[in-house]
């Protein structure tokens, strides 16, 4: 059994360094995308405070299809360019949304969500695999330190499946 030991009381850079270490240990030796994404989503959901959804959408036949996640049921398919996830996929840039109600094309899955961050998952060759999506019931839950930390942690997942 894997036990998370990351303290949410650490300063953010230390928290994300420890989270990256935990993710590497959790995914070590496994390359299956579904298995690794499932464990990764659970690690984030149970380690990061103030989340109500943590999971993945993977690129399948030109659209994003929901993958492993923790939280309430989600939209199954998202067109590239639609919503926060589709925008992150289209631009290949992290989308940091302090207030989802101010995002013109936000796709609501959980009415409790107030803020969101979506990180595109890119292979070493620059191929889009999908996105990591985190939602919070707290306005402005995510900031630039979260963006930097989550981008680094997301690379751990990509490295585990991009061999």
From TrEMBL:
<keyword id="KW-0560">Oxidoreductase</keyword>
<dbReference type="InterPro" id="IPR003018">
    <property type="entry name" value="GAF"/>
</dbReference>
<dbReference type="InterPro" id="IPR000614">
    <property type="entry name" value="FRMsr_CS"/>
</dbReference>
<dbReference type="GO" id="GO:0005829">
    <property type="term" value="C:cytosol"/>
</dbReference>
<dbReference type="GO" id="GO:0033745">
    <property type="term" value="F:L-methionine-(R)-S-oxide reductase activity"/>
</dbReference>
<dbReference type="Pfam" id="PF01590">
    <property type="entry name" value="GAF"/>
</dbReference>
<protein>
    <submittedName>
        <fullName>Free methionine-R-sulfoxide reductase</fullName>
        <ecNumber>1.8.4.14</ecNumber>
    </submittedName>
</protein>
<dbReference type="InterPro" id="IPR029016">
    <property type="entry name" value="GAF-like_dom_sf"/>
</dbReference>
<dbReference type="InterPro" id="IPR051330">
    <property type="entry name" value="Phosphatase_reg/MetRdx"/>
</dbReference>
<comment type="similarity">
    <text>Belongs to the free Met sulfoxide reductase family.</text>
</comment>
<feature type="domain" description="GAF">
    <location>
        <begin position="53"/>
        <end position="157"/>
    </location>
</feature>
